[in-house]
Amino acid sequence: MNEVLVMGHRNPDTDAICSAIGYAEFKRRTGMPEAVAARCGDTNDRIDFVLRTFGVPSPRFVADVSPKVRDVMEPQVLSVSPEATASDALSLMDQHNVRILPVLNSDRHCVGLLSLFKLSKFLFPATNRLIDSRRVLSSLMNLAKTLGGQLLMGPEPRREEELFLTIGAMSFESFTKRLERYKRDKLAVVVGDRVNIQRHAIEEGVRVLIVTGGLPVDPEIIHLAERRRVGLISSPHDTVTTASLCRSAVAIRHMLNEEFLSLRDDAPLTVVRAAALASGYAAFPVTDATGRTVGILSKTNFLKPVERKLILVDHNELSQAVQGADEVEIVEIIDHHRLGSLTTQQPILFRNEPVGSTSTIVADCFFRHDVELPPPIAGLLLAGLVSDTLNLTSPTTTARDKEILLRLEKIAGVNAREFTDKLFASGSVLTLKPAWQAITIDCKEYAEKGDTFSVAQIEEVGFDQFWKRKDELQLALEEYARNRKYLFATLLVTDVVLQNSLMLVAGSKSFIDQIDYPSTAPGVFELRDVVSRKKQLLPYLTHCLQKMKAAGN
């Protein structure tokens, strides 16, 4: 799948979603048609409000970008049904130059695999089993179809039965003696235009007479076959070819390999590769969640490169990126946060600027390169900018943010102040979400000198809802930190009106003891004039972490 996914961080906020959509639009307009906006977390009420306001659909949800079986499988499945003949299968294999075919029933469930090796062993038995080369397991209808001939007379034409092949290429006397050695109703006699042999075979009650060479069959012979209920087939081939083709009229359900290894289409390649390569199978049916076969995978398919690539926006740390980001190529990063520990295998475009939002940087890309910015996209970028900067009141706000916002207002036809009021009134996380979701809805994980921790932030109008739910939020945060094995986890609740915050902390007591902001309740601290996670809170938390380590804790 040749695509470039433009994605923000896990638990995306408004800026992450809007900048992903905006940058994907920019890349498509500047020569990258495969750029697709995506997200790896759920949207929230405010993001949904923004998307509805500007009439833009939510980015595609992609929970995991690690290469999957579906990324390298052959989606066009060449297959045969269990009732198809060996001749059908050989023709398909020859036409498409394949050696293995999956055998699918009417529900497209795989019932086995058919290999060219298995077919050749059946059609060309070893010298110690030459008697097998004269056995034909088929129906009269399949015999006629395989020979490309005409069924002139066929009592019970669909009945599958075991026949014994004999050739009438001898004197009449020799033929009559040969017939005496076999059960007549099991014989399939192949003969040319020797009418006396034809007549005798029918009178003796053989199961089927196959007349070769495309030669006309005497009406008297046809009438006699009808009276004696003997099958009669006209073959366009010579006797040798006809005899060799007869055995390939067998239904392949008699020779398929019912032992095989199937793979789920959504299985990660890293999980199935070792087992598949170590197996004795050369090909693997690929199924979906319902068991239907949707592809076929050979061992050489594991060598195919996966074309999926990533552009990260609003973050640059793998701990915050979509699952599997370390298994695909990251080609660009557009961000306004601190530098993390992410490494790449080759040089990439990395644009990191100390501005208030990633949406600011994306909008600047349009302006700097003189690329037309559609009004709905301008509206989204405006929403991302005012959301991350609290409409230019956050300490992260720069002159560049103010300049960009003015231009976005004109293009989108939106008043930023009025829109911001509507945005923050569009949904209170603490009112609408359960505690476990409230503490993770905009949560980022960080690693600092061997320790990991998380910082979540939600914006509210006032702190009333926080105090009503403080106890359940604290329990949820403690459980979250414990399950993730974090040193600590924090929730920053910001009052967008008063421009103050409360911080809820759970985790290591040694760390919490380093916090010197006023404590208003156990685990709750008042952070006056702190509204930015990136510029104010995160540096403070890393400072507290350093103090803890310096104290030997």
How would you sum up this structure, described in words?
- It is a single chain.
- With 553 residues, the protein is α/β, with parallel strands linked by helices.
- Among the domains are: 4-67 and 307-424, Alpha-Beta Complex (inorganic pyrophosphatase (n-terminal core)); 429-550, Roll (Diaminopimelate Epimerase, Chain A, domain 1).
- Helices cover 36% and strands 21% of the residues.
- The protein has a 6-stranded parallel β-sheet with strand order 3-2-1-15-16-17.
- Strand 20 (488-495) and strand 21 form a beta hairpin.
- Helix 1 (14-29) packs parallel to helix 12 and helix 7 packs parallel to helix 8.
CATH superfamily of one domain: inorganic pyrophosphatase (n-terminal core)
The count of strands amounts to 23
Kindly, what is the distance between the CA atoms of the first and last residues, rounded to a whole number of angstroms? Answer: 49 Å
Describe the main β-sheet briefly: 6 strands, parallel
**Helix content bin:** 25-40%
What is the compact description of this entry?
The chain contains 21 helices and 23 strands. With 553 residues, it is α/β, with parallel strands linked by helices.
Name the features:
553 residues, 21% strand, alpha/beta, elongated, six-stranded mixed sheet, single chain, 21 helices, inorganic pyrophosphatase (n-terminal core), six-stranded parallel sheet, Diaminopimelate Epimerase, Chain A, domain 1
Secondary-structure blueprint of this entry?
Blueprint (H helix, E strand, L loop, with lengths): L3 E4 L6 H16 L5 E5 L5 H10 L5 E2 L7 H4 L13 H11 L3 E5 L5 E6 H8 L11 E4 L1 H8 L2 E4 L7 E7 L4 H8 L7 E5 L3 H9 L4 E4 L7 H10 L2 E4 L4 H8 L16 E2 L4 H10 L4 E5 L5 E6 L10 E5 L15 E7 L13 E4 L5 H11 L6 H15 L9 H14 L3 H9 L4 H4 L2 H4 L4 E6 L2 E10 L3 H5 L1 H15 L3 E8 L4 E8 L1 H4 L6 E3 L2 E4 L5 H18 L3
Parallel strand pairs: 1-2, 1-15, 2-3, 8-9, 9-10, 10-11, 12-13, 15-16, 16-17, 19-20
Antiparallel strand pairs: 4-5, 6-8, 7-11, 13-14, 18-19, 20-21, 21-23, 22-23
Helix pairs in contact: 1-12, 1-13, 7-8, 8-9, 12-13, 13-14, 13-15
